[in-house]
Design goal:
Blueprint (H helix, E strand, L loop, with lengths): L12 E6 L6 H17 L1 E2 L2 E2 L2 E6 L3 E6 L8 H18 L8 E6 L2 E6 H9 L8 E3 L6 H7 L1 E3 L10
Antiparallel strand pairs: 1-5, 2-3, 4-5, 6-7, 8-9
């Protein structure tokens, strides 16, 4: 069951998929429609899942699920990953590679392999004050409060 992202509780489980590039305006419109269609039919053991989504900075797909009504099952999580894989193929984009880092450079969102980010930290090209995206957040509250943070407040701090 598709609901507005903003109406989901703070405890809603969150999955964040960072894209290797920004979606074009046409792609954004399509992806949002496909996400909504996916969520409308998303179930766990035959029960509808109350979920919502948003796309941030034209490149982060955020999927959230209210597990107080129906929890995600292994099959429902597999279905969401399969859906994301379909988006990867359709748009020739990477969404599932967790070995990449996104961070802000002014208003621009940069995307680099983790090894490059480490080198940049050593060279002081990024610092503990660099705004990074902590895609390891697990619920809506963490997403809204601890997703976009200085590197010093994230797992990225180990490289600074």
């Amino acid at each position: 069951m598709l609901v507005e992202f903003s109406t989901l509780p703070d405890e809603a489980r969150v999955w964040i998929y960072q894209a290797s590039r920004s979606f074009s305006p046409e792609e954004l419109s399509e992806v949002k429609m496909l996400l909504n269609e996916f969520i409308e039919g998303w179930t766990a053991h035959g029960s509808d899942l109350r979920a919502g989504c948003e796309i941030r900075y034209n490149r982060f797909i955020v999927l959230a699920l209210d597990q107080t009504i129906t929890a995600a099952s292994g099959c429902s999580i597999d279905a969401s990953v399969s859906f994301i894989q379909q988006l990867e193929k359709k748009y020739n984009i990477t969404l599932l590679d967790k070995m990449n880092v996104s961070y802000k450079q002014g208003d621009f969102v940069a995307y680099k392999p983790l090894s490059d980010f480490r080198k940049m930290a050593k060279q002081k090209a990024v610092s503990k004050n660099t705004i990074v995206f902590n895609n390891l957040v697990t619920n809506k509250y963490e997403y809204e409060n601890n997703w976009e943070v200085p590197a010093s407040d994230s797992w990225h701090a180990r490289f600074m």
